[in-house]
Amino acid sequence: METSKEEIIKATQNQETQLPEGTNVVAISLDGANMMLREAGTLKRRPQTRPGHDLFESGSSCYKNAGVATESFYKPITREGEPILQRRRTIVVAHAPEERMKSLKSELELEVRHCMSIAPVNLKKVVIMDGARGLWTYVEGCELFHVWIQIVDFHHCCEHLSKLAEQMFGKSSTKGKKWYSKYRLVSTNGTRWDQEDVAFRKTIFKNNE
Q1: Helices 5-14/102-118 angle, 10° precision
Q2: pLDDT digit string (tens) for 150-178?
């Protein structure tokens, strides 16, 4: 009789009775990656960034979104006088393309529930991802993550901040570059946005509706 993937996961978990020594933070992340499959469908994907890719919109191949999730454990240490988090272990869960990543999410939840069953009471729990709305809809609607700290990946924020600067000041604008640098720093240290910039941003988008 064949053993299911879920049974293999549970058997492995049963051998783990504690988190890596010193763990006080667990962080999970989900993302998707476009894979070309040898089956009929649409070649719709992210805008082409490299030469040489197939330019046809449909045919005998297609792109579909595979899913990957990570669960990482961190221990606080001091390095050169500065407190940092040292990654102790990462569990990776991946799955072939599937609508809404149902199997991936199910396997991730199995891992997270096991983690919570052996975690110390003071464990800090974090979800960190890019801005994909579908994934955040899942996280925000999943009871398992309701009390977790939720963070949008810094570099993804900067990507959108750059696009906003271009929308407001034009492409390759010196003023736009200064504005981007200012608010990239704001995003790092948590300083509040200037109210005049918030008002200006609202005016820009209202005029472009």
Answers
A1: 10
A2: 998 888 888 888 988 898 889 889 999 99
Residue 73 backbone phi and psi in degrees, to 5:
-115, 135
Residue 75 · residue 123 · CB < 8 Å:
no
Q: How many residues does the chain have?
A: 209
User: Quick one: average pLDDT of 115-127?
Assistant: 94
Residue 86 CA from chain centroid, whole number = 19
The C-alpha atoms of residue 45 and residue 194 are separated, in whole angstroms, by 37
Could you read off the pLDDT of 13-44 as tens digits, one per residue?
A: 666 678 999 999 999 999 998 888 887 766 66
Phi, psi of 126 (to 5 degrees): -130, 135
Report helix, strand and coil shares of the chain as percent, to nearest 5: 40, 30, 30
The closest alpha carbon to 124, from 25, 193, 36, belongs to 25
